[in-house]
Amino acid sequence: MMPYKRPSRMLDESTRRETIDESKAAFLLALPREQLREICEFTGLGRLERERTAVRLVFTTEEFYKLCRMVVGPAS
Question: In this structure, is residue 42 part of a structural domain?
Fold first, then answer.
């Protein structure tokens, strides 16, 4: 019987390219969008993407992880 080896998601390139938009990020962090944008301007995390009618802020999963660590703080 062969042991099950769980795939490493950190090495998967498609995972690194996944994005989280500002609405979802603000909801998950329990922050207003304005405050999220201020934090992002200060830290340099996230990037603006133009859509047909608007500009939105998006994060890679790595950037969102860093943002979470900054906002929430280190785990106890």
Answer: yes
Q: Which residues contact 31 (CB under 8 A, 6 or more apart)?
A: 39, 71
Q: Report the alpha-carbon distance of residue 20 to residue 35 in Å, rounded.
A: 17
Residue 75 pLDDT > 60, yes or no? yes
47-66 confidence digits (pLDDT tens): 999 888 888 899 999 999 99
Q: Is 46 exposed, middle or buried (0-12, 13-18, 19+ CB in 10 A)?
A: buried
CATH code for position 24: 1.10.1660
DSSP state of 49: E
Entry pTM: 0.69
* Angle, helices 33-43/61-72, rounded to nearest 10 degrees: 100
